[in-house]
Amino acid sequence: MITKRYFSLISFVLIANIIFSATPPQQSDKSTKKIDSLEKVLKKSKEKDKGSILNEIAIEYSGFLPEKAIYYANEALELALKLKDKQTEFSALGIISNVYAMQSNYKDAISYRIKTLKIAEKEKNQEWIAICCNQLGNIYSSQGKTDSAVFLYNKALKIYEHLKKELGIASLNINIGLIAYEKGEYAKAMECYRKTMEIAKRINDNENLAYSYQNSGNVFYKLGQLEKAIDYFLKADKLLEAMGNKNYIAGNLINIGNMYFSWNKFDISISYYEKAVKIFQEVGNKRNLASCYNNIGNAYGSKKDFIKANEYLQKSLSILKELGNKSETANTLLNIGINFQSGKEYDKAMLYYKMADSIYTVLKYEVGMAEVYFSMGEYYKDKSDFMKALEYYNKSFVIHKKYNQKPSLCNDYEAFSNIFSKTGKYKEALEYYKKYVELKDSVLDKESYNKLVLAQTNYQIENQEKELLIQNQKIDLLTREKEISSYKMYLLITAVFLVLLVSGLIYNRQRTVIKKDKELIEKNNKLHESEKALIEAELNLRNSELEYKNKELMNIGMNIIQKNDFLGSLVDNLHAIEKISKNDAALNEIKKLIKFINHNLNIESEREVFIKHLELLSEGFYFKLSQQIPDINENEKRLMALLKFNLSSKEIASLLNISSKTVDFYRHNLRKKLNIPTEKSITDYLNEL
């Protein structure tokens, strides 16, 4: 949980204030020196210039002394009202809004941001209106109100498109992509990042290009494509290093640490987090330092080192309290509670859950409240108080249902099924298990679609990069050809006047031309090689799509097998209860359940879906079989396709709804028909076809 929350946070931190005039820094020697310098300038400045300087000082303070930031911004505001300076007034109100947002004081943050919007509308300044919509979108996003955030982002995007402000368009696409990412719409998120990449490359905007690479890495990470994720993180790292932006370099270190965390290599992930910690300490970025401590605590918790985990989580909590960031404080309190519960210190766990719940309730942040309720349900389940556990799981479920959070709803259904199973209510347990499986399948289907679209989008991105490279090479070649043509003309003119005097020089010049022509031929060859590489990339994409479809097919098959195994096991348990039960009413109920489950075991719809997918993917394989074995029938083709996936007889029997003996009989007949030697497996033979 901690890692996922941090991952969302770091993306938001990267983007939140891109369009605003300046991003608030954190405390460091550099910012302290700058404040001292600004205050000296302030004393010597004329009254009309003081407002903008006061705002600069407020921005410098906003990251580590929010009270001082608000004080200086109010000073600037007062002066702006006196001088009727709308630019300074707009900036001062915006700074105050941003500081309140960083403190999770969303009510005041929205209030001040609306004041800036009214100024922008009165002044009819479209760019200011876009800034306000973007910043309001950021605030609503922090509250989990994603629909309102997207509405405001799109409004800002339309303004920037009308104004043809490509920097604003690029930044807004990132923000919209982040919301899509949070909602699990990974294909849409990737498309937004692709648009930003296209603009950023065109206008040499390395900052937004780096953000796009970094957030694209997050998408691939979320979908389990870790190699692709690291590839994008390294692309971002290269740009960030060139820019010298230490905060974002540290963010990239965290992303790489998350990769190793997902591989359960916790010590390596901690080493990357600690490198990020050093950078955040160096630049004085307390907010991200707190988040980094959260990740380290999570890694130690996963290693079962609960003492060390609590040490780092407490460090995070201390910083967040100092900064006055309520929502992230509540999140850390929740994480500490989870850590204590994992270490079986239940009383301490519940104490921290209640503290987190009280903050989320005040903030009216329902998504956070749902996470606390689910953790409380887990607490009562561990304490075997199943009625209480059910009560809190239900509270969590109501909120997840309200916001249509499907992955979380899957967890709720599974939790319900487990509780009813433990309390002997098998019918209810089965109903919720069916809901869990159905929702999980729909999530898997969406994820498979996302992966397919993602592959296509990624291909477009790589293709754009290759086209850009080829275009640059063509430009180089044309330039060289032009240079060579000009050079030849010069030689010709020179030869007319100096033919007798410089014959030796002409000979040498001709050799140079031949050499340059040779270089030109070599460059043409390289261009052909690039085009060849592009064709190979297209072939690799098709192979990747086929691999995705094969994995999808096996997922469907494994779901059918797992479902049948579970239902079969449940029937066996009910038969055992039936034998010892003496209550006639209970016996009748058990028999109904057994009949219901057996009916589900024999449902053919899922198998039909599986067989259709199998036949679709195996068309080429079936054609080869028909050519080599003219008398082969459809059942034998289907069996051979399943054997090619290296499935056991039991698994094939479950998928085709036949007995394992029947499968073995078919296998034996196939060996005879194909004359396969006994020392060679059928699977190996089929894979060689």
Separation of the first and last Cα atoms = 46 Å
Rough outline? flat
Catalogue the unreliable spans: 1-26
Mean pLDDT: 80
Q: Please outline the major beta sheet.
A: none
Order of helices and strands: HHHHHHHHHHHHHHHHHHHHHHHHHHHHHH
Classification by helices and strands? mainly alpha
How many distinct beta strands? 0
Secondary structure: helix percent:
over 70%
How many helix segments?
A: 30
Report the radius of gyration as a whole number of Å: 32 Å
Determine the strand fraction and express it as a percent band.
under 5%
Give structural notes.
It is flat and about 95 Å long. Helix 1 (2-15) runs antiparallel to helix 9, helix 3 (47-62) runs antiparallel to helix 4 (66-83) and helix 4 packs antiparallel against helix 5. Helix content is 86%, strand content 0%. It is mainly α and 689 residues long.
In short:
This protein has 689 residues and is an all-alpha fold. 86% of the residues lie in helices and 0% in strands.
Summary tags:
689 residues; mainly alpha; flat; disordered N terminus
List the topology elements.
Blueprint: H1 2-15, H2 29-44, H3 47-62, H4 66-83, H5 86-102, H6 106-123, H7 126-142, H8 146-163, H9 166-182, H10 186-202, H11 206-222, H12 226-243, H13 246-262, H14 266-283, H15 286-302, H16 306-323, H17 326-342, H18 346-363, H19 366-382, H20 386-402, H21 406-422, H22 426-498, H23 503-580, H24 584-601, H25 605-617, H26 619-628, H27 634-644, H28 649-656, H29 660-674, H30 682-687
Helix pairs in contact: 1-9, 1-11, 1-13, 1-15, 2-3, 3-4, 3-5, 4-5, 5-6, 6-7, 7-8, 8-9, 9-10, 9-11, 10-11, 10-22, 11-12, 12-13, 13-14, 14-15, 15-16, 16-17, 17-18, 17-19, 18-19, 19-20, 20-21, 21-22, 22-23, 23-24, 23-25, 28-29
